[in-house]
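TL;DR need structure tokens for one chain.
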Amino acid sequence: MPDFDAIVIGGGLVGAAVAYGLARRGKKPVVLDEGDIAHRASRGNFGLVWVQSKGIGVPEYQRWTRRSSEAWAEFSAQLLDETGIASGHERPGGVTICLTDEELDKRRRLMEQLTAESGATKFEYHMLRHAELKKLLPAIGPQVAGASFTPYDGHANPLYTLRALHAALLNHGGRYVPNVRIDRIGAAPNRFTITAGGATYCAPRLVFGAGLGNKALAAVVGLNVPVQPVRGQIIVTERVQPVLPMPTLMIRQTLEGTIMIGESREEAGFDDATSPEIVHTLAERAIRTFPFLRTVRIVRTWGALRVMASDGLPIYEQSREFPGAFVCTCHSGVTLAAAHALHYAQYVIDGALPAELTRFSTRRFDVRAAA
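>> reply
TL;DR here they are.
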């Protein structure tokens, strides 16, 4: 008899969300986690639950992202009820700030494309000029040309969400094994044996939710997961009185009062250090957007590594060679946490991914299939 119903490799937001989803459905998963020595995106995440900008040219991604955003309120409420830990989720809508008319025109075209591609789901948005935007965000500066707004966007606290997922997992009878490396993966169809940290774990289901680690780990079961690190840097200020009633793509105020400034994208390999040049660029744009920030003190900066496929889309697949082995990889671990817990976990139990996720298959990276 297997020890567990599923083994999940990776204890960050992606792996923990899937494991929690399995446990709340009565399954017994074990999470094998390398711990904080891993390049864990969860601990450096900006915290947006973001819909606009997702899925341009790929309507399947837009629909999946919106589905998760719609489920986040239920997901957050469940975690609070089960653990007493609040995720900090709010969904007041969100804006993407444009400082120039050129940025605003480009943004309008992108939003029009999202709407055209949304089909029957109807994508609601508004383009706001400076005066209209100032009614929503009185603190904007005179250099802001306008913004796009959608009601689907929000934000959450990634660290509290991760803590709640781990607590809920344990409450439902799951097991969490920290600070272990995977030594060996034994695979047969619907039968997997993992050796890690001197112990052996067996289960009929295996989920690779280890972020950047999935590239090497999932290859053992024949899954091609070509992810690469993309660094982002973040600035956090001291606490100030509530001034931003909704998040923007690059600036948001947390429930605790701090202002987070981010959204850099850098090809830096596995270097997650910060750089004065990027921090200066982020701060300069933030001050142009919200001039009050000029007098607010910075208390911390950090860098973190996104888990990115070459096309920016999630990777969802079941091994054809070893059925029962699944990969779940994305760079939007916060946004998609609800979908992973409330939907993807059920697909793992069912032993099959639905047609709606076919667009995210690893087969898109197969040159022969694309030829």
